[in-house]
Amino acid sequence: MKKITFIFALLLTLNFLATNSFSKEKMVVIPESAYKAILKRLDTLQQKVDTLEKEKEATKKKQEQFNKSLDDIYDTLDEVETKTIKDKLNWGVELRTRVDNFKVTDEFNPSTGEHDDYSADNRWTTRFRLNMSAELLKNLSFHGRLTVYKNWANIHKAIYYPYADPNSAHVPSDTSLKLDRAYFDWVVPNLPVPVALTIGRQPSSEGPSSEFKENRLRQSTYPVLLFDGEADGVVATVGLERFLKLKNSGLRFAYGKGYQTQDDKTVYMDARYGIDDLNVFGVFFESEIPYLPGSLMVLSYVRGNDFVDNPVDPGKNLGDMDLLGIHLQAPNILDSSFDFFFSWGMNFSHPNGKYVNMPVGAGPDGKPILMPMGLLNDDGKGGHTGWAIYTGFRYTTPFAKLNYPKFGFEYNHGGKYWFSFTQGSTELYNKLATRGDVFDFYYIQPLNKYLFCRLGYTILNYNYTGSGWHIGQPLETDKSLKDFYFLINLYF
Amino acid sequence: MRRLLVLTLCLFLFASTSWAGGQEIFVKNCGACHKSGGKAPPVNPADKAAVVWEKYFKRHRHPVDLSSISPGDMETIIKYLKDHAADSDQPVAAAIPK
Questions:
Q1: Is residue A274 located within the same domain as residue A316?
Q2: Residue of A84, A136, A183, A185 to mutate, interface with B, max B Cβ within 10 Å
Q3: Per residue in A64-79, pLDDT tens?
């Protein structure tokens, strides 16, 4: 009995201890097999944890390597970006070789009093242009162009061009480098209206619609019928798109000089010889034509004050001249592959009563033949009105295998007293100055993205003398010029 | 002369009918997102060279699915971007500020 009482007391004690010691945990009794399965699973989990730990270590190493590579890439990018910023200038090249076959008929020879014919079977020229551009800030950019335009194996420059500065890079001569363009565009910040200033030697040659024939995008500011020459000047352009809702619309105010005094004794003193500078002012409005993407409309007014007889060696001021112009052009009209343009111009001369006696050749005795010449007259008196139209089209053929060849036709007519600032004509002859009719046919064969060739035939029928000159009374003439040419042009 | 002027005027009036070129299709399809303050920054074709644009679309690098744009429009858009890419011929004239 004592033994039973002792065991009972022991059980109670154990129960008491168990109840007090493990009162917060429940005891679970499971079969041995289940217990072993749990242990096995625990082992498996432990192995997975070990594997993950190893993978984590490997990933960490890779991440460190990746970060190092990224740092290397950033270092390289820094170098490249710094070099790019230091480079500043983007360069481009144009190279053109051209051969012309000319025939001139009925040109009056003042020395003999007869009309002569002459021709050139193959006259070769090469033109090299180095284009520069830099976007320095979002509102400040620079553009420049240096040109060598030369006759093959010859340094002769055509002497009949009355100007030198506006066409020094557009008339073939020798191997010297000419400054064709150098200007900057600065959009003035914080003004109530958007204003850009374009200062320097301007993009004022080979303007619209030259791009069709030149197989390029627009490469200059002013319509080529009214102004095509190298010009130093200051241009202020007021952006009007936000006010008029006309795309790319703007009003330009331009100032430049056609002649600046070249005093060689008292440097920079004006009018030493009583000759005023030829100052040129222009106002141009341009815009895209609504509903014609990529099109262009330009309304122009140009005033030239105090024209001199010969800007290279002036003798007198002869008067003033006004020019008016309208230019319209549209590429790919109605998705027809036809590009079209039309330009109209008028000029009004205001002579000041003065004239000069200009040598026009040598007589049989060797003495110069002098002719009186005023501003579009021979006595310095009487203003005249001239006009011209210039129109044409270009068609892009659908032949993909031939790189979409193009052909075009241009026609221009100038009246008896027509004159404009086209001395920098890209042609060997000042075609748009013609007082008569000009028919111009061409075929463009693109060879690849950077190379094209052009075959052309141009007929100039002069009705009056003095085309391209602002002096002298135009006289009737039957002179004509026919030119068959081929050129190959590279640009990149 | 008068006939020529009338013909010119008629041609321009006739031509004043709208049609969609590459730029219009680009703006229509891409302009909703790619604009100032839009879901994506504005895109200028001159941001990349032509061959880079070509690779960009060939490698499907555009972060948003473009399958809603028809294949014809997509082709026109890529052609527009390449035609006006950084290494393409660029117009030159005195600047007109906007």
A1: yes
A2: A185
A3: 999 999 999 999 989 9
Contacts of A293 (CB under 8 A, 6+ apart): B21, B23, B24
- Do A185 and B8 count as a contact with CB atoms less than 8 A apart? no
**Does this complex have an ipTM over 0.90?**
no
* Bridging pattern class, strands A385-396 and A406-414: antiparallel
The answer to whether B95 contacts A334, with C-beta atoms less than 8 Å apart, is no
Q: How many helices (H) and strands (E) does chain B have?
A: 4, 0
Q: What domain count does chain A have?
A: 2
Other residues' Cβ atoms within 10 Å of the Cβ of residue A74: 10
**CA-based nearest distance A194→chain B, Å:** 6
> What pLDDT does residue A63 have?
95
Tokens of A223: 């319509």
| Contact criterion met (CB < 8 Å) for A235 and B94 | yes
Distance separating alpha carbons of residues A223 and A282, to the nearest angstrom:
12
Distance from CA of B32 to the nearest CA of A (A): 20
Given a contact cutoff of 8 angstroms between Cβ atoms, the answer to whether A282 and A300 are in contact is yes
A131 and A74 within one domain? no
Q: Find the domain containing B33 and state its range.
A: 18-83
Per the structure, the count of domains in chain B is 1
Please write the tens of the pLDDT for every residue from A38-55.
999 999 999 999 999 999
Q: Of A112-121, A156-165, A235-244, which range is least confident?
A: A156-165
Check whether A367 has a pLDDT greater than 50.
yes
d(CA A123, CA A487): 12
Residue A250 to residue B92, Cβ atoms within 8 A: no
**pLDDT tens sequence across B55-93:** 899 988 898 999 999 999 999 999 999 988 988 888 899
Closest chain A C-alpha to B95 CA, distance in angstroms: 6
Q: Which residues of B touch A207 (CB under 8 A)?
A: 93
Option in B92, B94, B97 nearest A219 (CB): B92
Q: Do A335 and B17 touch (CB under 8 A)?
A: no
A44: containing domain: 32-87
- What's the CA gap between A350 and A375, in Å, rounded? 8
